[in-house]
């Protein structure tokens, strides 16, 4: 259950505007951004602004676009059960940043599932 969760907001995106609205292109780019060692299990998206998710074994990429604001919110989570996949999570985030070209980014990195020292929970 230990893993890295990256959460970000991209503001003032200057990438190609269709990345914020074209569901099919964004789906393909999202799947392509995932390292080849993590096979996509499922993708989905909705028209308008785009809401999409790429579900992976032990991981996910989720994003929402707001074309009228030139903004994107996204999450990248990787579970480190079979090894440390933190670098892959950072690569996915970097690929999305290169796609949308935000003028400003707010990002939080959260380590999930770390077990605190002390007595075992009951």
Describe the structure.
- The protein is an alpha+beta fold.
- It has a domain at 3-46 and 67-105.
- Helices cover 21% and strands 39% of the residues.
- The chain has helices spanning 23-33, 86-100, and strands at 3-11, 40-46, 51-56, 59-66, 71-79, 104-112.
- The chain has a 6-stranded antiparallel β-sheet with strand order 2-3-4-5-1-6, with helices on one face.
- A hairpin with a 4-residue loop joins strand 4 and strand 5.
- The longest helix has 15 residues, at 86-100.
- It is globular and about 40 Å long.
- The mean pLDDT is 84.
Summarize the structure.
It contains 2 helices and 6 strands, in the order βαββββαβ.
Helical fraction: 10-25%
Report the principal-axis shape.
globular
Low-confidence stretches: none
N- to C-terminal distance: 18 Å
- Radius of gyration in whole Å, from Cα? 15 Å
| Major sheet strand order | 2-3-4-5-1-6
Helix count, per DSSP? 2
**What's the count of strands?**
6
Order of helices and strands: EHEEEEHE
* Relative strand content: 35-45%
Topology at a glance:
Elements: E1 3-11, H1 23-33, E2 40-46, E3 51-56, E4 59-66, E5 71-79, H2 86-100, E6 104-112
Antiparallel strand pairs: 1-5, 1-6, 2-3, 3-4, 4-5
Q: Which key terms come to mind for this protein?
A:
122 residues; alpha+beta; six-stranded antiparallel beta sheet
């Amino acid at each position: 259950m230990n893993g890295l969760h990256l959460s970000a907001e991209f503001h003032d995106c200057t990438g190609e505007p269709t990345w914020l609205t074209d569901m099919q292109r964004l789906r393909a780019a999202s799947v392509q951004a995932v390292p080849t060692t993590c096979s996509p299990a499922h993708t989905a998206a909705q028209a308008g602004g785009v809401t999409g998710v790429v579900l992976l074994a032990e991981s996910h990429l989720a994003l929402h676009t707001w074309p009228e604001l030139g903004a994107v919110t996204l999450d990248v989570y990787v579970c480190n059960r079979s090894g440390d996949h933190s670098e892959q999570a950072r690569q996915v985030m970097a690929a999305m940043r290169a796609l949308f070209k935000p003028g400003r980014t707010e990002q939080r990195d959260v380590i999930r599932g770390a077990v605190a020292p002390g007595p075992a929970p009951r």
